[in-house]
Amino acid sequence: MLFTADSETLCRAFLSGANKLCNNKLILNDLNVFPVPDGDTGSNMSMTVTAACKDLLKNNYNTVGKVMNGIASASLRGARGNSGVILSQLFRGMARRLSDLSTADARDIAECLKEGVSAAYKAVMKPMEGTVLSVSRDAADAALKALETSGDIVVVLSAAVSASQESLARTPELLPQLKQAGVVDSGGQGLVYLLEGALSYLETGEVVELSGSEVSVNTTLDKKLIDANIKFIYCTEFLINKSAQSAPVGLFRDRISKKGDCMVVIDDDDIVKVHIHTNNPGYVMQEAVKIGELVNIKIDNMKYQHNERINAETQPQEPEKEIGFAAVAAGSGLENIFSDMGVDKVIEGGQTMNPSTDDILSAVNSVNAKTVVVLPNNKNIIMAAKQVIDLTEKNVVVLETRSVPEGIAAKLAFDPAVDLENNITAMNSAISNIKTGMVTYSVRNFTFQDTEYPENKIIGLAGGEIKAVGDDSFSVLQELLGQVVNDDSDIISVYYGGNVTADKKEQIEDVLEEKYEDCDVLVYEGGQPLYDYIFSVE
């Protein structure tokens, strides 16, 4: 039984839940409604909670309010994709309820879950049932109901977990797309993993351990120093090759945590990855050899590095302009196109690699302009981009571009001689007047026009729907264009991806110019991954 939770309990429960979510990242990615390679809910949610975990590991918060505020702030800045943003808003609402508390009882926990649901619903313009929103609501309602018979936090959270599992199982009945795909909602499943992991800690006293190396890419802490007053001087990193009689990694983690900050210890089968800022690297390594042999040892004096950076970064600043641009794109060709059009900062990202709110914020702050127009160029990046508006002193305008061609059309419509308001109107008009499509491949079996197709089939998408299926990407492109181009069309722009060779360009031009002789056909190297062709018709 647990009637009061302190800061350490809340912190460990969250880490346990986050670890379980991260361990199941690939399962979440596979819970994809569309049979296209954009199943990145698991990646986005795991990166979001990892940002919060990193904050907890480098800060010794001594109240539940401070723990939850840290989680909310870090997850917001680290939020990726719609699922990550919604999750960060859940944490934001929970933090609002716990903000002034040193400890929390069962009612505090139940009510903070409900407050989190309220914040998440408000963050979504068109909330949908059968998603992480309804799963979180049902979990919170069950927690409040459990208060009628128990003041035990474990009982209350157990009720929330059971309700979330039942709610998740109902999501296909609430969303026809889920039922057709034969999956449950991926965001809802991610929340269930998070709650299950937290409950596991409260029941056993053991934090769920990270079981894989996939998350290690995002747990290496940023070494950029912003203050010369560094408490722990030595950035210490190494790998441990475990021995047959290795000491417990959890015990090692607990011992070195008292000797520094910014600690990350990742247990990956036979290898342990260690990163810590400390004044005593000798002690850290002495404890580490109890686990096994040390390799790839790297120790940096961060005060020295900081002074070197200051000397290197003092450069004269150019005058600030009125309006600048930041755009998201993946592929060297597309990045060059945006740069050549005058976009100040191109953020690498797109399908399966959504940039975080913090990535977009960094890009916006790097643009030397009073107002920065952000082109997300992907529907799953728009929410993360909008969070930046409240995180910077710059004026930020997020245009809801859902594809690269829409972003290009918006930038082409921009006139530096016109004021911002009229430019926004012109750019939004350009976005609404362009038709786009793309050719990719299926990542699982699917049904199209009452016919079953296997994975790795070439598919053409337009208007958010599958419109064509085939075995050759160029043939599918032609079929798709045949459905989109009409008598009012003037310009066809095609951007070929990284899997299409440059010598194909001439063939594309010849075939399309012959077929659409009344249209201007423009073919560019996009270099984008996953999509052999992206096109627009104007």
How would you describe what is shown here?
The chain has 538 residues and is of the alpha/beta class. The chain has 4 domains: 7-212, Serine Threonine Protein Phosphatase 5, Tetratricopeptide repeat, CATH 1.25.40.340; 230-310, ACT domain (Alpha-Beta Plaits); 321-432, Rossmann fold; 435-537, Hypothetical Protein Tm841, Chain: A,domain 3 (2-Layer Sandwich). The chain is built from 20 helices and 16 strands. Strands 13-12-9-16-14-15 form a 6-stranded mixed β-sheet, with helices on both faces. Strand 14 (491-496), helix 20 and strand 15 form a beta-alpha-beta unit. Helix 7 (132-146) runs antiparallel to helix 8 (153-174) and helix 8 (153-174) packs antiparallel against helix 10 (186-204). The radius of gyration is 25 Å and the shape is globular.
CATH-defined fold name of the largest domain = Serine Threonine Protein Phosphatase 5, Tetratricopeptide repeat
Q: What is the count of helical runs?
A: 20
| Sheet having the most strands | 6 strands, mixed
Based on the coordinates given, report the CATH architecture of the largest domain. Alpha Horseshoe
Q: How large is the radius of gyration?
A: 25 Å
Mean pLDDT: 86
Main sheet: strand order: 13-12-9-16-14-15
What count of structural domains? Answer: 4
Strand fraction = 15-25%
Helix-strand category: alpha/beta
Oligomer classification: single chain
- Please identify which CATH superfamily of the largest domain we are dealing with: DhaL domain
User: Quick one: overall form?
Assistant: globular
Using the coordinates above, name the CATH class of the largest domain.
Mainly Alpha
Report the end-to-end length measured between terminal Cα atoms: 65 Å
- Give the beta-strand count: 16
